[in-house]
Amino acid sequence: MEAKWYVLYTKSRSEKKVETQLQRLGVKAYCPVKTEIRVWSDRKKKVFVPLLPSMVLVKLLESERNLVFNVSGAVRYMFWEGVPVVVKDREVEILQDVEAGNDMIVSDVSVLKPGKSIELSDFGFELQTGKVKYVSGNQCWVVLKDLGFVVKLQMQ
Q1: Which pLDDT value is given to residue 100?
Q2: Which NCBIfam families match (predicted)?
Q3: Are 27 and 58 in contact (CB under 8 A)?
């Protein structure tokens, strides 16, 4: 049997702690983050913010799924229609590329209009189509109905 990536819900603002604790237990865990500059009245600071709030991806065998509950901050797995959600290896690779800052380039931005269905293979999503919800400048929000997410795409 092959290990699969599952989506684990965590307590709010506990994603990185849960990831670290899981890795100490020998569980392959991944919490993708993005860098943001936060501004206070007296300083600026670079902070790492999870791309998937309150979620950590874990790769393990079906029989090992209960191991994660030995970690403080792990809440439950994400389910869809009574079955645990499994994330494809390719989708995890895409998240790693996004985190690493690898650019995804679109050749024609002018065709992205609200309500239009688009193929997302240009953005690294394998066999996914989405419906454009909103376009603003060089940003585009796309609804991925099958996954139940809205993705914000940054175009250059």
Answers
A1: 80
A2: antiterm_UpxY
A3: yes
